[in-house]
């Protein structure tokens, strides 16, 4: 069984015992998303840690986007709840790269591919994405690649 999935289950059990409703509900929703992904498709199978990590990343991104939408609509209490849920999920994600670290990876990729203009962005992104997967938001990476190529 995937270690990350086991850790999520153990932490959910601990949250239930501690009566921590926020952590319990977030982990329950996340484990449900993992279970749905496991039974989706042609054959039910157990997900690897990398696949569980992808689901965690998507769930965290959903929370951040919802928080932004709620802030824009003036619903600060709902935005705060979404951000708190995103913080719970962040405990299970690898540490995020700084803009400087991403910029260094982008510069190396531009040099390696010989990219010169915006038309070469796909080549650069193809090299950069595997290196930053799960550790940087795609939008941030794309913005830094655009800045480097302009």
Automatic annotation (TrEMBL):
Q: List, alphabetically, the SUPFAM superfamilies matched.
A: GatB/YqeY motif
Name of the protein in question: GatB/YqeY domain-containing protein
State the organism named in the record.
Answer: Tenggerimyces flavus
